[in-house]
Amino acid sequence: QTDSSQGNTISHMDQAFADGYTFGYAGVQQKAPEESGVYVIYSAARWIHVGDSDDIRRSLLRHLNEALPCMDGEGPLSFGFELRGDADRAARRRALVAELAPSCAGHVDPA
């Protein structure tokens, strides 16, 4: 899907996130690791958020409990992740934000 008026629409799926999971409590508990890395939250139409964390599961659960205002009205959401060490996960997040232009790009994850 593409929409020339939106830079953050999904025109291709980054291979690392091709096996997305349902963004809900069960999906996060079952699939998200308690490890360091980057994660993406997205809808069928657009990239919503890119984050990095020393505990991906904890961060995704926090997003479920304290949803970002920019996620409102996006419909069913999915998530994906890449395991990354502390040394390079912030750089990978910045690269993904530049590539995917998520709609919540200005949001800073709480510590």
Describe the structure concisely for a colleague.
With 111 residues, the protein is an alpha+beta fold.
List the main descriptive attributes of the protein structure presented here.
111 residues, alpha+beta, 4 strands, disordered N terminus
Task: Identify low-pLDDT runs.
Answer: 1-7
Rg to the nearest angstrom? Answer: 13 Å
Strand content: 15-25%
Structural class per helix/strand content?
Answer: alpha+beta
Sheet with most strands: strand arrangement: 1-4-2-3
Number of helices: 3
Order of helices and strands: EHEEHEH
Question: Total strand count, please?
Answer: 4
Largest sheet: 4 strands, antiparallel
Helix coverage percent of residues?
A: 25-40%
Overall average residue pLDDT: 83
- Oligomer status: single chain
Distance between the termini: 34 Å
User: What shape does the CA trace take?
Assistant: globular
What does this structure look like?
This protein is an alpha+beta fold and 111 residues long. Helix content is 26%, strand content 19%. The protein is built from three helices and four strands; from the N terminus they run βαββαβα. It has a four-stranded antiparallel β-sheet, with helices on both faces. Strand 2 and strand 3 (47-53) form a beta hairpin. Helix 1 (25-31) packs antiparallel against helix 2. It is globular and about 35 Å long.
